[in-house]
Amino acid sequence: MRKKISAAIIGMGIAGVSLFSTGSATGHGYTDSPTSRQVHCAKGTVKNCGAIQWEPQSVEGTKGFPARGPADGTICAGGNSRFAQLDDPRNGQWPATAVTAGRSLDFRWKLTARHATTDFRYYLTKSTYNPTRPLTRADLEPQPFLTVPYGGRIPDATVSHQGTLPAGKTGKQLILAVWNIADTGNAFYACSDVTF
């Protein structure tokens, strides 16, 4: 009798875990070109990053940016308090990738778990951006400079998009990449610091 009860309890536990795990996106990913903050943390280039150093692919938050999604000041962490270190501007000292305004650039995602995709969007900060403060919507140009529609298709494990950076940018700026999942309410966020 005790074995039957134990088996029933274990079976109910497995069923419960299965029910809970289907509620969120099974896709995970991050940008590694230009190098994102989560990659700098995972590689140890930047220290004191907390849990993100082991989970660079897990910056998941509500989709619908900029109308919805992470609150201002929590955008780089996707609104996820576990990864708040990504929102810390570190006095403007995040390592930055050198880029050239008006030139083409390769944007690359590493997807550790692929998922049906609406699109990938790339936003750039305005000329008035202050890299010593947490990122807000007011810091970003209102429209993405690159949108790559996917129409619900599942992307490859490595995804590259070619895009032209806006002309006239100078100094330290930030690129926000957003991967919108098609069949859940979530998206993945990645912030890459760049220097024009």
Structure description:
- The model is unreliable at 3-26 (pLDDT under 50).
- This protein has helices spanning 2-21, 37-43, and strands at residues 28-33, 60-62, 97-98, 104-113, 117-124, 146-149, 158-164, 172-181, 186-195.
- It is built from two helices and nine strands; from the N terminus they run αβαββββββββ.
- The relative contact order is 0.23.
- It has a single domain (28-195), classed as Distorted Sandwich (Coagulation Factor XIII, Chain A, domain 1), CATH 2.70.50.
- The strands form two sheets. Strands 2, 3, 5, 6, 8 and 9 form a six-stranded mixed sheet that branches.
- With 196 residues, it is an alpha+beta fold.
- It is globular and about 35 Å long.
- Helices cover 14% and strands 31% of the residues.
- InterPro entries: Cellulose/chitin-bd_N, GlcNAc_Chitin_IntDeg, Ig_E-set.
- This is Lytic polysaccharide monooxygenase.
- Keywords: Monooxygenase, Oxidoreductase, Signal.
- Residues 1-20 form the signal peptide.
- Residues 28-194 form the Chitin-binding type-4 domain.
Features:
196 residues, alpha+beta, Coagulation Factor XIII, Chain A, domain 1, six-stranded mixed β-sheet, 14% helix, 31% strand, disordered N terminus
Total count of domains: 1
Uncertain residue segments? 3-26
Portion in strands: 25-35%
CATH architecture: Distorted Sandwich
Biggest sheet statistics: 6 strands, mixed
CATH topology: Coagulation Factor XIII, Chain A, domain 1
Radius of gyration: 19 Å
Provide a brief overview of the structure.
The protein is α+β, with helices and mostly antiparallel strands.
